[in-house]
Every structure is written in C-alpha cells, then in structure tokens.
Amino acid sequence: MTLMHRARNGKPVPEILAAALRENVDPEMLRRKVAEGRVVIPRNKKRRPIEPIAVGEGLKIKVNANVGSSRDRADVALELEKMRVAVAAGADAVMDLSTGGPIDEIRRAILAECPVMIGTVPVYQAASDGILSKKSWVELTADDFFAGILKQAEDGVDFMTIHCGVTRATIERLTREGRRLDIVSRGGSLLAEWMDVNDRENPFFEQYDRLLDICNEYDITLSLGDGLRPGCISDATDRAQIHELSTLGELTERAWARDVQVMIEGPGHVPLHQIVANMQLQKRLCHGAPFYVLGPLVTDVAPGYDHITAAIGGAIAAWHGADFLCYVTPSEHLRLPPLEDVRTGVIASRIAGHAADIARGIPGAIDWDNAMADARQRLDWKSQIELAIDPELARVMRGGTMPTTDDTTCTMCADLCAIKTSAKAIRKIK
C-alpha cells in the first residue's frame, strides 16, 4: 500500500506522525492533506529509512539541490561531495541529474548515503544509455524508457520527474504561437525530437497507466515535469506552458485515483508581475497539488548571479502558493556547479523560502528573526553567528575584520554604533 492509500484509510501513519512532529503541526490535519493530495511525503518503499519530509500546503517551504554528472564532468566522488555540501547547507531534497559517466554508480552511491529524499529524471539516463549502446536517442522505444524508470525504482529513488505533459498537441501550440527561446528543458526537448522523428505520441502520456503501475508498486512520488517551461521571461505564461499545465492537472487526478502522490513542476523564467498569476493558475488547474518551482528567475541578464534572480522570484512564488523551491546556483546557464556554488544556491533558496514562511505566517518562522533581533540588541555576537542561516560565513566575516577598540561593535560603525547610542538616549528619556 502506498502512503497516500494508508493516509486515506484514516489510521495513524508513522511517516505522517514523524513529519507532523518536525513541522509542529497537527498530525490529523497533515494526514487529511496527504489523503487529499495537497501534501506529499516522498519515500520509495525500497529506500533505507530516511527522515520523512512533508511538502505542501501550510507547511514550511522546502528546498531541493541538484547534483549530477555530465559527459564532460563525471566523477562519483565529486557528486557525493556535492550531495554532502547540499545537505549540510540545509537542503531538504537532492536530485541526481547525471547525464554522463557511471550514472548508475553515482545514483546508487548517493542513495546509499544521502539522509534526505532523492529525485531523478530517468529520461536523462535513457538518452545517455542510448549513446553508450551506439543507439540514437530517437531509436529508443517505450520499453527502453520504462526499463530505465523501473531500474531507478528498484534502486530506491523517492520521486521522479517525468515529462508526461509534453504532448503532440502542446508542441503544436508552441509552434503556432512561436517562442523566443523554444524548449529549454532537456527532457522536454528530447521528447519533442523523439515524437517528431517517430511521428508518435509521448510514451509517458500514451502509456501513463504503465507509469502509475510502477509508482504505485514502489510508492514513488510522481513529479510531473514542466517540459515546456519558459526559458526566458518573454515566453512566460504562453499558450504551450498553460496547455501543458492543464494536461498535468488531468494527469494529477488520474494519479490520485491510483493512490500515487503527485507534485507539479513549474517555471522557469517569469517576470515579477506574472509570478502570482502563475501560482494561482497551477493551484487551480492542478487541484491544490504541491507546486515545485525552479526559481522562478525574474530577469535573464544575470549569469553568475542567477541564485539572486531565482531567490527574488522564489520568495514571491512561495509567498503565493509554491511549496518546494529548486535551487539555482551562480553557475546556472554557464557551467556545471562546483562545490561552493552548490552551497551558495542552497542558502539563497533557503533565504527565499524563509522570507515566504514569515509572510505566510507559518508558526515559528518569525521566532527565528525575533531571536536574531534580540541578540543584536544585546550586541551578542556569538548568538548572532549561531542564529545566522549560514553561520560559517558569518563567523568568517566577523572574525576577519574585528574592530580595533571595542569588540562589542563592528567595523561598520565602531564607536558610532547605533544600538549603543540609542540605548543611552532611550535610557535618558525614560
């Protein structure tokens, strides 16, 4: 039985009880939301025990970090270290997006060690395996695709991104309307080419029940991928994106009917003034299923700083309905991220998520900030550093430029410290 099925039976579920304790929410409320599909707790039944983490309505925003090799950079040890760095920085999930090298070995090594939920995009490996077997991507069959999914299910992957909504009808709409940047999703572009060359429908859409059979058997959470997400702000909220989203809403209901948990993936690149509408559309069209967004990035002109453009969009998106933020690193659009960029990307997304938690009134969110304010009022530098979202960086910055005369202040204000001065003035007034 899947976790969703057990939640619908109305009896206590250990994973839900543990997740409720972690979130400080009512277990019965959480059980109802899992049963309704508004919250997911991804965990493959084959996976070794991991801490249950709930994603969805009324809960703290969660953050995912992507790791994974490419054909140019394939090193098992490096990808393991990226996973460790991401988890240490506070990631709630890790996706292995490997497309080159020993993909099976990388995935299995990460699954064996990672303490948080793991996701993958199986179609990436299908393309890579095809290359290794001297087979063109477009020569692969539906059986090849599903064999890859089954292999990763057996390994214990907790959630999978499958681009079921990239259909021939959706591609036709994209072609007729036109786009500035066409398709930027790797999975979406690969499937579009496969459908064009073979003159066939997307096998993940055409054989969707076959996919649900696997997800039900292994209790895999289905992350319905946004293969036609906008890759530049000019393409945001266009006909193809919305048609795919509408299709995903229909597929969500079919998954729920099979007791399969579902998340919906979303854009992408979206200008500030369209973010709220995008969140509302998703929640309406996909019946309140948890929304997993990449960014969204609010401008296209900041390579090297896209962790910032994504954090700006992510905070607004999470405030207005997104539940799960996929990190974006400074390396986005430029290279495979090194270790430091992985860490920076996680911290940036956690800042965005926490800002949204405050705005949404999530219980306990503001308490963290109040504790920091009290520590600053006391000029308690030890507590300020311990309370920082990135204590390591705060400690380095503070220790590297200590004031020369009064170590209760900092080098910004020194003897003109506003907190000290105002404390004197306020005491005098009182």
Describe this structure in words.
This protein has 430 residues and is of the alpha/beta class. It folds into two domains: 41-360, Alpha-Beta Barrel (TIM Barrel); 365-429, no CATH class. Helix content is 52%, strand content 9%. It contains 19 helices and ten strands. An eight-stranded parallel barrel has the order 3-4-5-6-7-8-9-10, surrounded by six helices. Strand 9, helix 14 (306-319) and strand 10 (324-326) form a beta-alpha-beta unit. The chain is globular. The mean pLDDT is 95.
Topology overview:
Layout: H1 3-8, H2 14-23, H3 27-36, E1 39-40, E2 55-56, E3 62-67, H4 76-88, E4 93-96, H5 103-113, E5 117-120, H6 122-132, H7 142-155, E6 159-162, H8 168-177, H9 186-198, H10 203-206, H11 208-218, E7 221-224, H12 239-257, E8 262-266, H13 272-285, E9 291-294, H14 306-319, E10 324-326, H15 339-360, H16 365-377, H17 381-387, H18 391-400, H19 418-429
Parallel strand pairs: 3-4, 3-10, 4-5, 5-6, 6-7, 7-8, 8-9, 9-10
Antiparallel strand pairs: 1-2
Helix pairs in contact: 2-3, 4-5, 4-15, 6-7, 7-11, 8-12, 14-15, 16-17
What is the CATH superfamily of the largest domain?
Radical SAM ThiC family, central domain
**Strand order across the biggest sheet?**
3-4-5-6-7-8-9-10
Rg over alpha carbons: 23 Å
Structural class: alpha/beta
**Could you report the average pLDDT, rounded to the nearest whole number?**
95
Q: Major beta sheet, specifics?
A: 8 strands, parallel, barrel
Here the CATH topology of the largest domain equals TIM Barrel
Strand content: 5-15%
SSE ordering: HHHEEEHEHEHHEHHHHEHEHEHEHHHHH
Tell me which CATH architecture of the largest domain applies here. Alpha-Beta Barrel
- How many individual helices? 19
Number of domains: 2
Percentage of residues assigned to helices: 40-55%
Report the top-level CATH class of the largest domain.
Alpha Beta
Shape estimate: globular
Which parts are unreliable, with pLDDT below 50 for 5 consecutive residues or more?
none
Secondary structure tally: strands:
10
* Terminal CA distance: 66 Å
